[in-house]
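Sharing a chain and its predicted structure for anyone who wants a worked example. Both blocks are below, sequence first, tokens second.
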Amino acid sequence: MDVTVLSENTKLKNSNLHTEHGLSLLVEKDDNIVLFDTGGPEGSAIQNAESLNLDLCDVDAVVISHGHDDHTGGLLDFFKLNDDAPVYLKKEALNPHYTCSSNNKEFIGMDERIIEEYSNRIKFISETTEILEDFFVMPNIYQKYPTPTTNNILFSKEDNKILIDKFQHELFMAVKSIGEIDIFSGCGHKGIMNIVCSAEEAFPHMKIKTIIGGFHFQAGKISTFTAKSEEIENTSRMIKSDGIEKVYTGHCTGKYGYQIMKTILEDRIDQLYTGKKIVI
């Protein structure tokens, strides 16, 4: 399996690729190609795919991890390039979503034009579904451990009420190989430990080899609003004790979160950046 980071917050020093706050991963396994999230509204993922000579017309399916615009922002441009690929997400992802800090409310939900103009491309997921051979979309994340404290500034509108977001719109993806699975997380708002436990319950006889994606130890672009060190340490120790071989993380994990995870996971963890290629 090959994974290309089309968009992430960072890039290598001499790279000419575009960056923005967001995440988009192109996942290729055998003859199937899945776009996991589409990056932010500046369109960096789409631009970078072209720069990397990756044809998004060949994408077979899109998976949207949750309804924030730093993961859905490239969808409209993607639709202009690809006429066929269905987009899998939870229905709750269409709800309005906001970030609120210092009494300022900012809309961070999906562009309304996505559902208005391309409703025929949208496929709502409510149970574990194999969308292509070995690619599983997992919408049910069980609540065994606390969710990230950095969720506290995130809100969702339900029944005309703006409430603390419980992230019923989040899902993750699992890709199966012989005796193993690899997990893809957009932000891990429901908690990466809960995602791991949900994957273990769904695939009880399979080893989790790799986790790729964000862990939400940093709230949005606010680098000073981070999770407590104990929260990050507990997550890292669980990953280590579960025998997960490798973690590739970035985006909302943040520099502070990554540094703490690195002290515990050492060579088991590596940082994502725009343009990075991963072979699993």
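Comments welcome. The chain is about 20% helix and 30% strand.
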